[in-house]
Fold this protein.
Amino acid sequence: MSRLIVVSNRVSPPSGAGEESVGGLAMALSAALREYSGVWFGWSGRTTPEFTGRLHIEKVGGVTAATVDLEEIDLEEYYNGYANKTLWPLFHYRVDIAAFDRAFDQGYRRVNRRFAETLAPLIQPDDIIWVHDYHLIPLARELRSLGVKNRIGFFLHIPWPAHQVFISLPRHRQLVESMFDYDLVGFQTAEYQQAFEEYVLNEAAGAVVREGQLSAFGRTLDVGAFPIGIDAPEFAEMLKTGRARRMRDLMTACTVFRHLIVGVDRLDYAKGLEERFLGFEHFLQQNPDLRREVLMLQIAPASREAVEAYQEIRGRLDALSGRINGEFADVDWAPFRYVNKTYRRDELAGIYGAARVGLVTPLRDGMNLVAKEFVAAQNPDDPGVLILSRFAGAARQMREALLVNPNSAEEVADALRRALNMDRAERIRRWRALFDNVQREDVAAWRDAFVRALRGAEELRPAMVS
Ligand code: GDG
């Protein structure tokens, strides 16, 4: 029986609800691999003075983790450089802050080659390989050059940008050409898939062979939309834990007579935190009658602190949150709590459960799992309201949320007012539809659909590790 080999930049095997690894990809892959015994390959998180290619193999929670150390310069040029200073901003429409540096490009290719060289000896003839995210786009090309013939799939967790934005990337054609070494490329939404197809047709003289199959560069490639979800059964179990309940009760107690508005995001400019804070400020200005009835809690654990754009946004958010409280707080009351701590997942579940409004307003987001976690945590008899950005991939599935343009403080403020005034019947009706979707299109459905498509028509069976 064939094994599933998952490859991503970082490897963080499942370790339960207390796990503090922040980020959608880590959450989704831990959940997917928890069911599926498989091999998870990637960077160990450690650096060594010289690259050795030595593998560290560890078995954690039913998953074999195979990791490799990188050099400091790799981290600078590949991870902090090409991945997070070039591709991440560009794919989130921030061409203005994307860095185009030849050294980053070279580092990116070098690390992809190093990954391929370390991984190739582990691969058995009928394994299937599933590569994740923008850090590793050229990995299949490197594996093929080493003679790997296995089926290899790629899933992009972030948006695929519109044609005009994508072509701002120097050597964009080379990057897309390398994608044609995969058998299957998956996107979060049909919109991103279409943007990719548009590029292939217009810039690479490609053609649509049939729906979901493209040809270009003398090869054919299957493409599809596979919207990622949360681990719905695990989340439901987590809500029943003592910690989740205690956190919900604590939050309910400290917001007595007030409604909790909650946001939870990695501290990232793509998450629209500044715009969200301004939207909340506008809401307070426009709604003196509701001011004392709300408390907004924004949890934003720091991320990618080595990248300057992340240090800058942190400073701006500190100033803005201080200004909002300075403007509106009273001796016995403050409207805003902004915390940079990382919480346990079960505690987050409790916090979502106590909230009347989930405010999820990224400027661009591949999917956004927080929106789905918020919905999963609601009390069916008295659910909260989800306010969701139109520019999150999740907006495609979550039509019953209050959809907003995150750039507009007015729209955010109006949606907040509407959510707070929404009667229980409408809240239940909207939540029911959202919840059904979160349950149905969960992480297991995502994994199975992708693996099935990658295997072709072959029956899906859990992979075994020898
Ligand atoms: C990428 C794409 C796509 C947040 N704070 C804490 C914490 N988190 C967890 C959340 C959620 C995850 O991190 C964030 O997931 P998102 O999906 O919102 O965003 P990205 O990290 O940007 O993920 C995204 C995703 O990949 C999956 O494909 O949806 O569009 O950008 O699970 O709960 N977790 C803990 N403590 C925190 O303080 N433990």
Notes: The two ends are 10 Å apart (CA to CA). Residues 20, 22-25, 27-28, 157-158, 228, 264, 266, 299, 301, 342-345, 348, 365-370, 373 surround GDP-alpha-D-glucose (CB under 6 Å). The chain has two domains: 4-229+444-456, 232-440.
